[in-house]
Amino acid sequence: MDPLFPGDPRDIGPYRLVGRLGEGGMGQVFLGWSPGGRKVAVKVIRPEHAGDVEFRVRFGREVEAARRVGGFHTAQVVDADPQADPPWLVTAFVEGPSLLELVRGGGPLGVDAVRVLGAGLAEGLSAVHGCGLVHRDLKPGNVIMSADGPRIIDFGIARDAHASTLTAAGVVMGTFSFMSPEQVRAEVAGPGSDVFSLGCVLAYAATGRGPFDAGTIPAIVHRVLYEPPRLDGITGDLQLTITACLAKNPADRPTVPDLLTQLTTPGAGPKTDPAAIVAAAAAPVLPPRPDPVPPAGPLATKHTEPPTMDLAGERQPTKLEPSPSGLSRRALLLGAGAVTGAAVAVAVPVAIFWPRSNASGGSSGPIAVVAMTFSADGKTLIAVGGDGADSVWRCDVTTGRGSVTRLGTTGNVLAVALGPDGKSLARSEGNTIQYWNVATGSSVTLKGHTAGVRDVSFNRGGTVLASVGNDKTVRIWNLTSGDTTAFFRNKDTDALSALAFSPDGTLLAVGSSDGNNVRLLDAKSAHLKATLKEFNYVRTVEFSPDGGTLAIGGSGTRLWNLDPGSHTTSFGDQADTGVNAVFSPDGRTLASGGFKDLQGGAADSTGVRIWDVASSRLIRSLSPAAPPLAFSPDGRTLATGGDKVRLWNVTTGALIRTL
Q1: Is 0.70 surpassed by the pTM of this model?
Q2: Of these residues, 137, 390, 455, 471, which one is catalytic?
Q3: Taking the mean position of all CA atoms in its chain, how far away is CA 16?
Q4: Which CATH code, of 2.40.30.10, 3.40.190.10, 3.30.200.20, 3.40.50.10950, is assigned to 11-92?
Q5: How much is the pLDDT for 572?
Q6: Are the beta carbons of 157 and 148 closer than 8 angstroms?
Q7: Which of 392, 452, 504, 591 is the most exposed place for a label (fewest CB within 10 A)?
């Protein structure tokens, strides 16, 4: 248990709160005392969700579901007020660590202990399913190991077994490592889905890891849908029982009563042929194969429409249509992503894929990219562009030839960031964030903001994503679980606009577009640590490679030395707006570029300047050139955007190549 944070409530209804037990995407859970002196668990919906109709519906469902479930292996509802502001739910407090905490602290359980755990959880699921419900979020963190047996908690996404989904297609609820294939694909999840999750939980208890664990959500999704479970170290009947639970097809999984028998009767493993059990768990979940994709034509006045991708990453049929309109200048200001990348398609000139329509509907040349970076070896440039940022381009910087992955989009894209491995991409679409596996085209949706997402940023390891929205909130996401791990709400009137992680991942810089300041947050807790004021329109923020300096672009460029009491340094024309600034890999130089006018029409670039950081001296100017900007890993080459992507020699200022 953690102590209460300064902004946490001290009382909810008649219950006094004394500590934090945990949090999830829907709310926070506190330890409290009832008026009669009993310990209780109090779940409170986050303030930013309390006014959201969908979350109100989900919370009301949780209350009704939890009240209907009995049995020895679930936490009982004590009190609730779904109409309160914010709504809350109180359950009996179950003493004991979660299965997650127990395994992390003491290691995997023995075979007999896993059998006892499985039998208890199966009995709990029997009680849930007996009420016509499906839990839909069974995971180690939702299993409390009490003295009298395991208890299933958190019915936040429990629902009627035959109800249709409340969420839009492609939006999934739950924790990805323990979700069934049907949940991942946003299909109706019945009791068999809980059986699949139970198999994942038992595998975790026996090995200390999930059977589909991976470093990112797209990788986890791919393993759940396409790969057999990883059950190294589990043998005998227990291995067969867990494997049977993890069949890709729900019809091939055992029922809960069958599981109870298998787990409580020695030698009573699955009756199905072991080879068939293994095959059912290994068979990939594949959608019907679409018609072949038409090849891209050579005409610059036409383009291949981006193939839409389902969650499994299978391409859908495409068609040829007139060129899309160019990106807005708001998109031109998006900063560069992190390192390396991957893409799939035939090698074609980029102009074929990213034409921009003129008034007569013809092509006026390739549009500017919205984010780009070099691969780790400096031989490849990875860029994101196209109408709605729907294309990822991977180009050989020597030959200028490249390949394109098309992602599809709603068109309402305001922010894009490339992951550090180049295989992932985060892109805002309205209030949500699409997190993509670039190579396969599979994606998942992160929900939480109640107004448009304005910027997204990866940490250096690519395991954490931060986002800022027009709801004046910052969210920090764990990309392995898909959960919000920290949350910051701006209580002032200024709108938040830009994000960047420090190189060591401990700090998060948050810029304000109209509040004349930049905030530094603790990247783990999102607590405010410091504020730099007296800015006018902050568009981009970026840390130096050593983490000691912050470059702030907006109206001109300013450097903030983060040592206590240190000063700031201004670069360039402060009348420039929408400035994008990036450090060279050694931190000795800074490249900046911006625009004079952001009001409609074509962007008026002011060119790109390269500065000496130590002396604040202008080294040289590059023109024609515009953001986004990206240094090569050796710092010798700078890639710039604008009407074309150009590569420049940083030392001489000479144009190396136009891509």
Answers
A1: no
A2: 137
A3: 34
A4: 3.30.200.20
A5: 60
A6: no
A7: 504
